[in-house]
Amino acid sequence: MSNGVAYPNLAEHMVRVPLEELRTTLLAMLKKVSMFEFDSKVAVQRMIDADLRGLPQHGAGRICEYLDAVDLGDIDPRGRVLTLVDSPAFAVLDGSRAIGSVAATKGVELAIAKAKECGTGTVAVGNSQSLGALGVYAALAATEGCICFCCTSTGGVMVSAPGTSEAAVGNNAFAWAIPTDDESPLLIDSSCGTASRGKLNILQELGIPIPEGVLQSDAENAPLLPRGGAMGFGMALACSALAGPLAGGKMPNAKKKAIISANDSEHFFYVIDVSHFAEIKK
Fold it and tell me: What is the pLDDT of residue 250?
Protein backbone atom coordinates (compact mmCIF):
# COMPACT_ATOMS: atom_id res chain seq x y z
CA MET A 1 0.00 0.00 0.00
CA SER A 2 2.45 2.63 -1.15
CA ASN A 3 1.86 5.91 -2.92
CA GLY A 4 5.49 6.03 -4.02
CA VAL A 5 6.24 8.91 -1.62
CA ALA A 6 9.94 9.61 -1.04
CA TYR A 7 10.41 10.91 2.51
CA PRO A 8 13.60 12.76 3.46
CA ASN A 9 16.13 10.98 5.65
CA LEU A 10 15.62 12.34 9.15
CA ALA A 11 18.65 10.54 10.64
CA GLU A 12 20.85 13.62 10.26
CA HIS A 13 18.44 15.57 12.46
CA MET A 14 18.43 13.02 15.28
CA VAL A 15 19.68 13.91 18.74
CA ARG A 16 21.17 11.09 20.80
CA VAL A 17 20.66 11.10 24.56
CA PRO A 18 21.35 8.46 27.23
CA LEU A 19 18.29 6.24 27.57
CA GLU A 20 17.88 6.46 31.34
CA GLU A 21 18.46 10.22 31.27
CA LEU A 22 15.61 10.52 28.77
CA ARG A 23 13.38 8.27 30.88
CA THR A 24 14.04 10.32 34.02
CA THR A 25 13.28 13.59 32.21
CA LEU A 26 10.02 12.32 30.74
CA LEU A 27 8.87 10.91 34.08
CA ALA A 28 9.59 14.24 35.77
CA MET A 29 7.53 16.10 33.16
CA LEU A 30 4.53 13.80 33.66
CA LYS A 31 4.87 14.06 37.43
CA LYS A 32 4.41 17.82 37.15
CA VAL A 33 0.90 17.27 35.75
CA SER A 34 0.09 14.84 38.60
CA MET A 35 -0.08 11.70 36.47
CA PHE A 36 -0.11 8.50 38.49
CA GLU A 37 3.42 7.10 38.84
CA PHE A 38 2.53 3.70 37.35
CA ASP A 39 0.76 5.30 34.40
CA SER A 40 3.71 7.63 33.83
CA LYS A 41 6.10 4.68 33.65
CA VAL A 42 3.87 2.91 31.12
CA ALA A 43 3.45 6.03 28.97
CA VAL A 44 7.18 6.76 28.98
CA GLN A 45 8.05 3.17 28.09
CA ARG A 46 5.70 3.23 25.09
CA MET A 47 7.32 6.47 23.86
CA ILE A 48 10.77 4.95 24.27
CA ASP A 49 9.63 1.77 22.50
CA ALA A 50 8.59 3.90 19.52
CA ASP A 51 11.88 5.81 19.43
CA LEU A 52 13.88 2.57 19.61
CA ARG A 53 11.91 1.29 16.62
CA GLY A 54 12.88 4.36 14.62
CA LEU A 55 9.47 6.02 14.89
CA PRO A 56 10.21 9.47 16.38
CA GLN A 57 6.77 10.70 15.32
CA HIS A 58 5.37 8.53 18.14
CA GLY A 59 8.27 8.86 20.57
CA ALA A 60 9.55 11.23 23.24
CA GLY A 61 9.09 14.20 20.93
CA ARG A 62 5.34 14.02 21.53
CA ILE A 63 5.62 14.72 25.25
CA CYS A 64 4.80 18.44 24.84
CA GLU A 65 1.70 17.58 22.82
CA TYR A 66 0.53 15.28 25.61
CA LEU A 67 1.18 17.95 28.24
CA ASP A 68 -0.77 20.49 26.18
CA ALA A 69 -3.64 18.00 25.97
CA VAL A 70 -3.62 17.71 29.76
CA ASP A 71 -3.80 21.51 30.08
CA LEU A 72 -6.74 21.60 27.66
CA GLY A 73 -8.59 18.84 29.50
CA ASP A 74 -8.35 16.32 26.67
CA ILE A 75 -6.17 13.97 28.70
CA ASP A 76 -7.00 13.23 32.34
CA PRO A 77 -3.69 12.47 34.10
CA ARG A 78 -5.64 10.79 36.90
CA GLY A 79 -8.01 8.87 34.63
CA ARG A 80 -8.57 5.23 35.59
CA VAL A 81 -9.23 2.63 32.89
CA LEU A 82 -12.55 0.95 33.71
CA THR A 83 -13.91 -2.46 32.73
CA LEU A 84 -17.38 -2.17 31.21
CA VAL A 85 -17.82 -5.72 29.91
CA ASP A 86 -15.83 -8.77 30.93
CA SER A 87 -16.09 -12.40 29.84
CA PRO A 88 -13.57 -15.24 29.55
CA ALA A 89 -12.66 -14.38 25.95
CA PHE A 90 -13.50 -10.70 25.47
CA ALA A 91 -13.82 -7.38 27.27
CA VAL A 92 -14.75 -3.75 26.71
CA LEU A 93 -12.79 -1.04 28.52
CA ASP A 94 -13.43 2.65 29.11
CA GLY A 95 -10.19 4.57 28.75
CA SER A 96 -11.55 7.40 30.93
CA ARG A 97 -9.54 9.92 28.87
CA ALA A 98 -6.30 8.67 30.43
CA ILE A 99 -3.28 8.98 28.18
CA GLY A 100 -3.91 6.55 25.33
CA SER A 101 -0.79 4.45 25.82
CA VAL A 102 -1.95 3.45 29.29
CA ALA A 103 -5.41 2.35 28.13
CA ALA A 104 -3.95 0.54 25.12
CA THR A 105 -1.35 -1.28 27.20
CA LYS A 106 -4.04 -2.51 29.57
CA GLY A 107 -6.14 -3.52 26.57
CA VAL A 108 -3.50 -5.64 24.87
CA GLU A 109 -2.29 -7.18 28.14
CA LEU A 110 -5.85 -8.19 28.98
CA ALA A 111 -6.33 -9.65 25.49
CA ILE A 112 -3.12 -11.66 25.93
CA ALA A 113 -4.27 -13.01 29.29
CA LYS A 114 -7.62 -14.06 27.84
CA ALA A 115 -5.92 -15.71 24.86
CA LYS A 116 -3.74 -17.72 27.23
CA GLU A 117 -6.90 -19.08 28.87
CA CYS A 118 -9.25 -19.43 25.90
CA GLY A 119 -7.05 -19.56 22.82
CA THR A 120 -8.16 -16.13 21.65
CA GLY A 121 -8.77 -12.86 23.45
CA THR A 122 -10.51 -9.74 22.16
CA VAL A 123 -10.57 -6.34 23.86
CA ALA A 124 -12.13 -3.08 22.68
CA VAL A 125 -11.12 0.20 24.34
CA GLY A 126 -13.30 3.31 24.09
CA ASN A 127 -13.15 6.91 25.35
CA SER A 128 -9.41 6.97 24.74
CA GLN A 129 -6.65 9.05 23.16
CA SER A 130 -3.84 8.59 20.67
CA LEU A 131 -1.84 5.51 21.66
CA GLY A 132 1.35 6.28 19.72
CA ALA A 133 2.98 3.54 17.64
CA LEU A 134 0.41 0.77 17.24
CA GLY A 135 2.97 -1.89 16.34
CA VAL A 136 4.51 -1.58 19.79
CA TYR A 137 1.38 -3.13 21.31
CA ALA A 138 1.18 -5.91 18.75
CA ALA A 139 4.83 -6.72 19.50
CA LEU A 140 4.01 -7.11 23.20
CA ALA A 141 1.72 -10.01 22.27
CA ALA A 142 4.31 -11.60 20.00
CA THR A 143 6.83 -11.73 22.85
CA GLU A 144 4.27 -13.86 24.70
CA GLY A 145 4.03 -16.36 21.84
CA CYS A 146 0.82 -14.83 20.50
CA ILE A 147 -0.38 -13.49 17.17
CA CYS A 148 -1.96 -10.05 17.41
CA PHE A 149 -4.07 -7.93 15.12
CA CYS A 150 -4.93 -4.48 16.40
CA CYS A 151 -6.30 -1.26 15.01
CA THR A 152 -7.22 2.20 16.19
CA SER A 153 -9.89 4.68 15.14
CA THR A 154 -8.66 8.24 15.61
CA GLY A 155 -10.62 11.19 16.90
CA GLY A 156 -11.07 13.20 13.73
CA VAL A 157 -11.23 13.04 9.95
CA MET A 158 -7.90 13.61 8.19
CA VAL A 159 -7.88 11.35 5.12
CA SER A 160 -9.76 12.01 1.88
CA ALA A 161 -11.69 9.43 -0.09
CA PRO A 162 -10.31 8.60 -3.55
CA GLY A 163 -11.48 11.16 -6.08
CA THR A 164 -12.60 13.70 -3.48
CA SER A 165 -10.99 16.77 -1.93
CA GLU A 166 -12.44 16.64 1.60
CA ALA A 167 -11.41 14.60 4.63
CA ALA A 168 -13.76 11.68 5.14
CA VAL A 169 -12.09 9.23 7.57
CA GLY A 170 -9.54 9.32 10.33
CA ASN A 171 -5.88 8.53 9.78
CA ASN A 172 -6.52 5.17 11.40
CA ALA A 173 -3.82 2.57 11.82
CA PHE A 174 -3.54 -1.20 11.97
CA ALA A 175 -0.82 -3.65 12.97
CA TRP A 176 -0.07 -7.36 12.83
CA ALA A 177 2.56 -9.17 14.90
CA ILE A 178 3.36 -12.85 14.45
CA PRO A 179 5.99 -14.56 16.62
CA THR A 180 8.94 -16.25 14.92
CA ASP A 181 11.70 -18.59 16.07
CA ASP A 182 13.91 -15.68 17.09
CA GLU A 183 13.39 -12.49 19.09
CA SER A 184 12.08 -10.46 16.14
CA PRO A 185 8.42 -11.02 15.22
CA LEU A 186 6.94 -10.51 11.79
CA LEU A 187 5.56 -7.02 12.35
CA ILE A 188 3.36 -4.94 10.04
CA ASP A 189 2.41 -1.47 11.28
CA SER A 190 0.81 1.13 9.04
CA SER A 191 -1.35 4.21 9.08
CA CYS A 192 -4.14 4.30 6.50
CA GLY A 193 -3.12 7.75 5.29
CA THR A 194 0.14 8.56 3.53
CA ALA A 195 1.79 9.76 6.75
CA SER A 196 1.14 10.08 10.44
CA ARG A 197 0.29 13.50 11.78
CA GLY A 198 3.38 13.26 13.98
CA LYS A 199 5.66 12.81 10.97
CA LEU A 200 4.18 15.88 9.29
CA ASN A 201 4.72 17.87 12.48
CA ILE A 202 8.39 16.83 12.54
CA LEU A 203 8.89 17.91 8.93
CA GLN A 204 7.23 21.24 9.69
CA GLU A 205 9.38 21.83 12.77
CA LEU A 206 12.53 21.11 10.76
CA GLY A 207 11.44 23.35 7.91
CA ILE A 208 11.39 20.43 5.47
CA PRO A 209 8.74 20.60 2.72
CA ILE A 210 6.13 17.86 2.78
CA PRO A 211 6.83 15.53 -0.15
CA GLU A 212 4.52 15.45 -3.13
CA GLY A 213 1.87 12.77 -2.93
CA VAL A 214 1.21 13.08 0.80
CA LEU A 215 -1.50 15.75 0.91
CA GLN A 216 -4.57 16.04 -1.28
CA SER A 217 -3.55 19.55 -2.34
CA ASP A 218 -1.32 22.49 -1.40
CA ALA A 219 -4.19 24.21 0.39
CA GLU A 220 -3.91 24.96 4.10
CA ASN A 221 -5.23 22.07 6.23
CA ALA A 222 -5.51 19.87 3.15
CA PRO A 223 -6.37 16.25 4.02
CA LEU A 224 -3.99 13.35 3.62
CA LEU A 225 -4.29 11.06 0.64
CA PRO A 226 -5.20 7.46 1.50
CA ARG A 227 -2.22 5.10 1.43
CA GLY A 228 -2.57 2.93 -1.65
CA GLY A 229 -5.68 4.76 -2.84
CA ALA A 230 -8.93 2.87 -2.38
CA MET A 231 -7.20 0.12 -0.40
CA GLY A 232 -5.99 2.53 2.28
CA PHE A 233 -9.36 4.26 2.42
CA GLY A 234 -11.09 0.90 2.80
CA MET A 235 -8.75 -0.11 5.61
CA ALA A 236 -9.45 3.19 7.37
CA LEU A 237 -13.18 2.51 7.19
CA ALA A 238 -12.69 -1.04 8.46
CA CYS A 239 -10.62 0.22 11.41
CA SER A 240 -13.35 2.71 12.30
CA ALA A 241 -16.05 0.05 12.07
CA LEU A 242 -14.08 -2.47 14.12
CA ALA A 243 -12.57 -0.27 16.82
CA GLY A 244 -15.35 2.32 17.09
CA PRO A 245 -18.81 0.79 17.62
CA LEU A 246 -17.54 -2.25 19.56
CA ALA A 247 -16.10 0.16 22.12
CA GLY A 248 -19.13 2.45 22.14
CA GLY A 249 -17.54 4.94 19.77
CA LYS A 250 -18.69 6.68 16.62
CA MET A 251 -18.05 6.35 12.92
CA PRO A 252 -15.92 9.10 11.28
CA ASN A 253 -18.78 11.26 10.02
CA ALA A 254 -20.03 11.68 13.60
CA LYS A 255 -16.68 12.60 15.13
CA LYS A 256 -15.09 15.98 15.68
CA LYS A 257 -13.41 17.76 12.80
CA ALA A 258 -10.68 19.27 14.96
CA ILE A 259 -8.35 16.92 16.80
CA ILE A 260 -6.08 17.51 19.74
CA SER A 261 -3.88 14.53 20.59
CA ALA A 262 -6.35 12.40 18.60
CA ASN A 263 -9.04 12.94 21.22
CA ASP A 264 -12.03 10.57 21.07
CA SER A 265 -10.12 7.51 19.86
CA GLU A 266 -10.97 3.82 20.18
CA HIS A 267 -8.73 0.76 19.97
CA PHE A 268 -9.26 -2.93 19.15
CA PHE A 269 -7.00 -5.87 20.08
CA TYR A 270 -7.42 -9.45 18.88
CA VAL A 271 -4.88 -11.95 20.19
CA ILE A 272 -4.36 -15.63 19.36
CA ASP A 273 -2.28 -17.87 21.61
CA VAL A 274 -0.41 -20.06 19.13
CA SER A 275 0.07 -22.88 21.66
CA HIS A 276 -3.68 -23.55 21.65
CA PHE A 277 -3.57 -24.26 17.92
CA ALA A 278 -0.17 -25.79 17.21
CA GLU A 279 2.87 -27.14 18.96
CA ILE A 280 5.57 -24.53 19.37
CA LYS A 281 8.99 -25.89 18.50
CA LYS A 282 11.85 -24.36 20.40
Answer: 85
